[in-house]
Amino acid sequence: MLDNDNTLPNEKVDKFHSVQLIVLILLDVQMREMSNQGYESLESINNTHEILNEAKDEVKFKIYGYIESRSRTFLYNLFSLCLIGIPYIVVNFYPRLKTLTYQKCSLDRATIILVSDSDGKYSWKQITYEKITHTARPLFGEFRYFFYQHTKYVWSTEHLVFVTLGDLIPTLTNDEYLNNTDGLKKEEYENRLNVYGKNELDIKIKSYWTLFIEEVITPFYFFQVFSVCLWLYDEYIAYAICIFVLTLFSSFTSIIQIRKQLVALHALVESSKCHEVTVCRQTQESNQDIIKINAANLVPGDLIVLPAANLIMPCDAVLLTGQCIVNESMLTGESVPITKTALQSNNEQYNMDTQKRHTLFSGTNVMQTRYYGGEHVLARVIRTGFDTTKGSLVKSILYQPPVGSDFYKDSFKFVLVLLTVAAAGMGYCMYLYISRGAAFEDIIVRTLDVITIVVPPALPAAMAIGTSYSQSRLKTLGIFCVSPPRINICGKIKLACFDKTGTLTHDSLNMNSIVPSVDGRFSLPIDNVAELDVESKFVQGMATCHSLTRIDNKLNGDPLDINMFEFTKWDLDEPGDDENTRFDMLAPTVVMPGRNIGTPGNSKDLEMPYEIGIIKQFTFSSTTSCMTVICRDLRNPRLMAFTKGAPEKLHGMCIPESVPEDFNSSLSQFTSQGYRVIALGYKDLPHKFRWKEAQSTKRSVIECDLIFLGFLIMYNPLKTETAPCIRTLHQANIKTAMITGDNILTAISVAYECGMVNTDDQVYIISMENTDDSPEKVPKVIIEKAGTSSSKDYVSLNLDNNDYHFALDGKTWNKLRYFYPDVIPSILVRTTIFARFQPDQKTQLIMSFQNLDYIVSMVGDGANDCGALRAAHVGVSLSQAEASVAAPFTSSIADISCLVYLILEGRCALVTSFAIFKYMAVYSLIQFFSVLILYRQHSNMGDYQFLYIDLIITTILPITIGLQGPSNKLGTKSPMKSLVSVKNTAPLILQIAVCAFIQVSVIFYLYQQPWFEPVPIAVIDPVIDCWESTVLFLVSCFQYIVLATVYSKGLPFRQRLITNFWFLISALGLTIFTTWLVIFPCKQMAELMDVVFVHRDEKDKLVFRYTLLLFPLIHVFIAVFIELGISDRKWLNRCFKILKCKRKSKNKYKLLLKDSSYRPLNFDEQCHDSMSFTSRTSIVICYYLHHEFSPNSNLLLPQTSDLSLCFLTIVAAGAV
Asked: Where does the P5B-type ATPase N-terminal domain lie (predicted)?
């Protein structure tokens, strides 16, 4: 993929040079293979830089190649020494400036790399050269690499790009893994250890001194040091010392917190660490030695021997033999043990993402292993260290990707505005002092002092207060967050997506009944298994087609399997090695009828017990939506297979004659009532089919020509909190959607039941015409009314009403994305149910919603939703763990009420962050006005006055503002998203103007007093103990308290102000103390605070001080009016929209919902950019959606009067 925006300035490609153009095309073709592996390489002609996109970890960054220049480095060092090291500090802040000391070159020649991440941050990485003494494909000889974020990137001489070490190794097929059961030779092992390094997640706990240096080497702390030095020079000693002490205290507090987090992460890693593992080593005589080594010495390619039980996996490995029961709760949040089986024999390339059932992941607990005949359970190491899945979890915590919150971007814009104000103030200050003939030294000091006032040093810490308190409250509720900036995003959620099973409904599936199929006909539903023959294939299938195991004498496995097996009232046993001979090489699991069930009465069978051994398991596959087992009845040498899964999938696997004619209608009848339907089938395997063939045969050979046995009817009861939470979200105007792997009619029924679809609303199912017989044919879109059975009725869909919803399945989604991509936006905004979606399709769907400007949340159990949970703006995994790789949020609350809490806390955190930021901005400008006015009067505030304002008032109040909790009700109104929006800044400017006006007014009022004597103009040094300073100090103190109270407004996003006890106590105490200072302070306090002391006999001055209280009272009424009467009113927003000529929303989904013609956005542009005629004409589908259609003819039928328009549209699109 070529990127013209990043090409170097002097590297312009002449469009008339065809040779260079061909080179570019060839480079683009060459990079396609790397793009398919998760990388996008972006290179100039000279190969000076590239973009790496590691899809698995969602890391995207650019790298640029450089070589050292001795002459430039010498000049840089000399220049830095002359400026006492200042350039070193500047380069530390802005690493990109160091490019001046290097020379840009191609990546294949580079000795140092400049890395630019997606957040625009730069860092330098040294390229290391290393020689391999022994041949080890694909690396041999000398290779070059660098480390970035605990990942090793190696130069690929074949593709001429840097790639991760794991992706450089050729992918093997399943058969290549299975056919090689030899361990590594000593030489090869040593070579790989040299290349891959130790198998460790090395989370270094830095020393306090190192953390301190990293903490203080930042622009913020340098600004603090600069300010302290300035104040010390200006003899503001008390204030400077206090600020310095508080800065150190803040630094140490931050350092302790950072180290605490590192220790906690280190403990998390160590708690799931394996110290010793057994591996196979190939000797020179080609023998296999089984030895024990430290798990840290494992390398990819090692062959490990798994013990019988209780192993914490130290790496990612593919299972070659046997089976394992694994607990993956640390990674996925799913606490139900999972059965892992050996890799299946075929020529397909092994893929860890699609073959998770055959992969053991690092950090998971192998609870139990089984193998036939007592042989070893073997697994081949494929990833180690930070390349493992557990390593990805740790890296996601250490290096959190930028969230994209506009709040932080807006805050920097606002700081720039403050700096502009500071610049103006500095100019005015210089003018005053120059005009007075002040010394150059005084001019510089007074001018620089202005910038320390306008940009408050506490601003960065204050911005994080709201998020910090919300995170703490969420943790108390049992909701854990590894990415705190996402809490603010929770307050802006506009779309809530949910998985069904385990999220909206309970995990457990309760058996309702079974519907056997006999001779191609369904029998009546049976709710008691005793009504069936104990030897019937249906009962045998229910008893064997599962992946259950017994651990500590308790059944473990999928809840569906447990309920199905318990319904049969059979027993499960896992025999020892002495019982193996009854089943050839043996099945690890045996099932038999329970004691309360009568055994078969045939006397010839009494010699052998009625038991069935499970020879082979093909675990559930999201691709085929089914699982299969190969079994053998102890009394019969012939093997048989049972398959259960989605009825739609199993229908195609069965012999047509065995499938009832009313299969689809019966399935629709059950699913429309909300039941989950599982189909069951079986087949007898050939007589010569034995254990060996069972272990090596392909799945596709077994899952065909089955005899249909019938349906298992199960139901998922809704969780208690589901319906109320959905109702709450709808009342807050938050769209909800269900993304499930279940049947579409079952999903529709659950949507009605939980309130996601109102009872009066209609659901229309979107599907596509079946074109399997002619793949090149463009399928037609089918829209059916859910539950419609008439073949003649037409259904009118009025898009002007909002009383309908669309539903579609994963198969339709794939076809829409391929044939009609332009229609997808128009369909998505009206679709509520997404059924039969596979994990990768869920991720695609979330990203499609995000492209429509939705702020998307996704709630799931973490098992099959990892991709969607991580892709969403707010992903919540329902889990008991505090952190998982599945999502940035994990909730021990096992229902969707956690999302309501998150939205409430998110809105609270966002509003609190806005309030504190506005308060800090107003506080700095209030002090700025006070200082400028006093400078003009040849005065200034005293040290303890600054201390009282900066260290007491404006420190205590922002901290206590953050203690205000979220509202108990999720309202319709959403908080403002932009800090710099006109609606937000206009009231803020009014508040600032009022503050400035009051300060000017109080000075004018002071000038009107007959006893007042201003500071003499001839005074050189500013006078502190004067009436100007006293009046402005006291009035400004009230301004800080008033505005803090105003910005502590509660509803609708926070609790009422009266509930914030600590803020009220603080504000009341400060008000009382400040009032005392105004009315009549004691002489000692007046001297300490540099306030003019008034004797009791000075009546006129006492009266003046009493009347000063009128100014804060007036300010209270005006400030409250601005915040409640102007800021929160709809008319203000409408006025701004009119002034800005804003008629349409910027959000794409809002435009689509308002568009009565239901057309996709930017039609002309889409048609122009489209590469296929089919895509261009897809606009016709959107046009049809506004008209009548027949749900049963399965074709969109426009009105006759519209045919000409349709034809013209198609012709026009083709012409474009």
From this structure: 60-139
